[in-house]
């Protein structure tokens, strides 16, 4: 249970959002000798996501709630396979080597995003854990070391750590801010079918696709010329991706595309009001699926 005591967080705890990651475009441009795929991706983040709370405690603890808590692995509160706890433990070891105190912390994860959905998931949660614990423990770390720690947790974690509009290259570690990318009203949709990223990559027929190229002009026409190279293999594996993309498109989206390795698709709408109305309509049509109107980070937000 949370307790008073170390002065680093009050009884109300400290909150950190783990925003949904959206790949507006994702090109697979090569593969390294170690098997990692080389990517170029335009990445942005939503104003909604999972939530992590950090409380002073007598001993470390971890709890989960939220719509999708039941979809986490059975060992979610244990060490194996849980990125929140791995992030906590790796960060603690690095800080303790610097002589920085890292007293016990109770972490609560509110799981609002679908699992294995191509929108960050565990990577966003791990990144939020790093940000939250650095605040909770009142600690600092040189940016290169923090980026290296994030990458050790997963190739999506460095971009989720920054949670801003980015061009991601390499295996996800080469990040450049996209200062002109506007804030976009989107609808996210997922049929609640988990997708295995390794399975999608195994089905990828070509791994040396053309790169993204210059990003000149208005963003929407530019995005329409791009693609997600993982979408065709994902559609062959999960037939619902076709359906969810068509449903979002039928609500008036100006562009629909799959994010990451799926199965989440997004639609870009003319306004936040249009996106909200579309999400309401879609939730009425498919109440057992996931639809959410969001606004992304970017200029004009």
Task: Characterize the structure shown.
The chain is of the alpha+beta class and 301 residues long. Helix 1 (83-97) runs parallel beside helix 2. The protein contains nine helices and ten strands. Strands 1, 2, 3, 4, 5 and 6 form a six-stranded mixed β-sheet that branches. The radius of gyration is 19 Å and the shape is globular. The protein has helices at residues 83-97, 122-136, 143-153, 157-162, 197-202, 219-224, 231-237, 240-250, 272-285; strands spanning 14-31, 37-56, 61-65, 105-110, 166-170, 174-177, 185-190, 255-258, 265-268, 290-295. It comes from Rhizobium puerariae. Residues 82-162 form the GHMP kinase N-terminal domain.
Look at the structure and give the mean pLDDT.
91
Q: Remind me, CATH topology of the largest domain?
A: Ribosomal Protein S5, domain 2
How many domains make up the 3D coordinates? 2
Helix content: 25-40%
Q: What is the architecture of the largest domain at the second tier of CATH?
A: 2-Layer Sandwich
Concise account of the structure shown:
This protein has 9 helices and 10 strands. The protein has 301 residues and is α+β, with helices and mostly antiparallel strands.
Topology:
Layout: E1 14-31, E2 37-56, E3 61-65, H1 83-97, E4 105-110, H2 122-136, H3 143-153, H4 157-162, E5 166-170, E6 174-177, E7 185-190, H5 197-202, H6 219-224, H7 231-237, H8 240-250, E8 255-258, E9 265-268, H9 272-285, E10 290-295
Parallel strand pairs: 3-4
Antiparallel strand pairs: 1-2, 2-4, 2-5, 5-6, 7-9, 7-10, 8-9
Helix pairs in contact: 1-2
